[in-house]
Design brief:
Elements lengths: L11 E3 L4 E4 L22 H6 L6 E4 L7 H27 L8 E5 L2 E4 L2 E4 L5 E3 L4 E5 L1 H8 L6 H20 L1 H9 L4 H30 L6 H11 L2 H7 L15 H14 L16
Parallel strand pairs: 1-4, 4-8
Antiparallel strand pairs: 2-3, 5-6, 7-8
Helix pairs in contact: 2-4, 2-6, 4-6, 4-7, 5-6, 6-9, 7-9
């Protein structure tokens, strides 16, 4: 992506070196527990709560000194957040509404959110209780090293997906879906979660469409990077990577690789907020 000279967001909160240092009690990324990556890119509060650490720790106020790579990631993340602000402000205005931007909290290791305490193992997530998205920049390294997901637009997709959950929250979709999930059994609740995640993928695509239209930032290979990322965070793909011989569809919470790629591509192609209904179609047709 061509991001040189682009503005950064004023809605970034850096909590590295602050707060509680939580011992995660065995929760981690990659290796023999790669199946836990199914929960990454979660976004909805119920999925986040399932990944909350039950460990203990001590408070720290030590100033954090980021590495050169972390500074690059932080700059990029702030520029992408600023882009989502510009895009969604314009899209909402077209629909006669006012966009309220979320804050992005950058943390290291663990963080306290409006949805509870979380560790980096939770992955990037959005909390509707405080309207903030949470990101440990180490996740971008995990994407490359543990998941084989490369490219700056793939990283941008991660942020845009979480902002997509914020869009759902502003439109009332997320709260309504969570209310329905509370009345469902586990299997049906998981299916509702898939619908939530696929719509967030679609909104990430809508952002990408307008980002390129407004700024001409996409370069050759960028779209392929995002599509590849969507493929490698599909529930079926991750289950196979974790060694499952038979795909357990009743455990899906985010959608298959095909589904995630399909809805992301649809958003990228149309850029139309109104075409992202993942709740009305039959589950089989998603």
């Amino acid at each position: 992506m061509k991001m040189d000279g682009r503005r950064t967001s004023a809605n970034v909160e850096d909590r590295r070196g602050k707060g509680a240092a939580v011992t995660a009690g065995g929760i981690g990324l990659g290796g023999i527990i790669i199946y836990l990556i199914v929960s990454l890119m979660g976004g909805d509060a119920s999925a986040v709560m399932e990944q909350m650490s039950q460990g203990t720790g001590s408070a720290t106020t030590e100033e954090y000194v980021p590495t050169a790579q972390e500074k690059e990631f932080e700059l990029f993340a702030s520029q992408i957040l600023a882009s989502t602000e510009d895009v969604w402000m314009a899209v909402f205005k077209q629909h006669g509404a006012t966009y309220r931007a979320p804050k992005m909290v950058i943390f290291k290791g663990s963080v306290a959110s409006g949805c509870g305490n979380a560790t980096s193992a939770t992955g990037p997530f959005y909390c509707s209780a405080d309207e903030k998205l949470y990101l440990d920049l180490d996740f971008f390294n995990e994407m490359q090293q543990s998941m084989g997901i490369k490219g700056d637009f793939a990283c941008a997709y991660v942020i845009a997906h979480e902002v997509g959950h914020h869009i759902q929250n502003l439109l009332g979709t997320l709260g309504e879906a969570h209310q329905q999930m509370a009345r469902m059994d586990k299997t049906e609740s998981n299916k509702m979660s898939v619908r939530i995640e696929l719509q967030a993928d679609y909104y990430a695509g809508v952002w990408g469409h307008h980002e390129n239209k407004m700024f001409g930032s996409l370069e050759d290979g960028d779209l392929e990077e995002a599509i590849n990322a969507a493929k490698k965070i599909g529930d079926d793909y991750l289950q196979k990577q974790a060694g499952y011989r038979d795909v357990k569809s009743d455990l899906f919470t985010h959608g298959t690789s095909v589904q995630r790629m399909r809805w992301l591509k649809k958003g990228l192609q149309t850029g139309d907020l109104s075409q992202g209904d993942t709740f009305s179609p039959s589950y089989a047709s998603l």
